[in-house]
Amino acid sequence: MANPAPLHPRQTKRQAAHADASATPRVLPVSRPGRCAAAAGAGVFDQVDETDPFLSIDIFRRHGACIPPHPHAGCGVATYLFPESATSLRCRHAHGGDDAVRPGDLLWLEANCGTVHEDVPDDARATVRGVRMIVNRAGRHAHGAPGQTVVRADAMPRWCEGAVDLTLVCGQWGERVVARAEGERTTLLQLDWRDDELRTLNIPCDGRRWMALIAQGEAALAGHALRAEGGGAQALLLPPGVWQLAGRSGARLMLAGGEPLGEPVVYRGNFAARDESDLVTLTRRYQQGSMGTLSPITE
After folding, report:
1. Which residue in 72, 246, 275, 297 has its CB near the most CB atoms, within 10 A?
2. Count of other CB atoms within 10 angstroms of residue 149
């Protein structure tokens, strides 16, 4: 372009949603958890005071064997596959859920009282990339049965704003809504730049807490440069306001929003509990087999 978008735009802002909310965007520490040899990525973990209701959110990349069956309880697990992923995932849980999640789809698992879960790629030689969000539900559905739903790619609203393509993966953005029973207003918005462009991003003053993660390329938001290099990611906590946003051609930014619970939570071993006593109860239920088991896939 003759006039490329600057990557250090000047900050503009308006009043935060409530008196004790910070009106200044903040960079969040990003880590790379060692899941297994088949999975890699980077995201925001173990910062619940800052990211409530999100227990974690990360950009993942998987290649090869599946991650073995593992339990979840007291949380919602949203798994979104980027459209350019090279294979689908077969997603099962021990209480009867069995769905094929294709590139561009979102799987939403409400673990509730607990279930054993696994994702198996259709092609073990192919690569999938996407976003995983773990949302706090500690103590809210202690006796509810687990369940999962899939939001297909063709059900997600898509639109263009200048040189930016937007996809509402789940939740609500302005007047656009993804119809789904679970998740309420938990929102994931994808922004893809076809060309360099500078624009504004209006974070709504509606009680939700928002985070931005750079998934690929290079962008700048509210005066902070964001780069995804070597499979990594950078994250920014965004208060309500109108912020300047610049992106380079090929950049992808993910914007996640959810309503804070403002309650204590203990999150360990994929279990979200209200306190240590609840955590012990969930762990015991899993050890006793109450969260079920998954038989190996034999096809």
Report:
1. 72
2. 15
Q: Which residues contact 100 (CB under 8 A, 6 or more apart)?
A: 88, 89, 90, 91, 122
* Domain map (residue ranges) of the chain: 26-288
Sign of CA pseudo-dihedral 40, 50, 245, 4: negative
259, 184 Cβ separation under 8 angstroms: yes
41/174 Cα distance (integer angstroms): 30
Report pTM: 0.89
Local structure of residue 281 (DSSP, 8 states): H
Asked if residue 109 lies in contact with residue 97, where contact means CB atoms within 8 angstroms, the answer is: yes
Bridge partners, 106 (sequence order): 80, 151
Decide if 115 contacts 292 (C-beta within 8 A): yes
Q: How far apart are CA 159 and CA 138, in angstroms?
A: 35
Q: How far apart are the first and last CA of the chain?
A: 51
| Rounded distance between C-alpha atoms, residue 234 and residue 81, angstroms | 19
Which CA distances in Å does 118 have to 80, 149, 174?
A: 15, 15, 34
Mean pLDDT by 10 residues, the chain (299 residues): 45 38 82 58 88 94 79 95 95 92 96 93 90 92 88 96 97 88 79 96 95 95 88 85 96 96 92 95 94 81
- pLDDT digits 0-9 by tens, 28-83: 988 876 544 445 678 899 899 999 999 999 999 887 666 789 999 999 999 999 99
- Quote helix, strand, coil % in the chain, to nearest 5: 5, 50, 45
CATH architecture of structural domain 26-288: Sandwich (2.60)
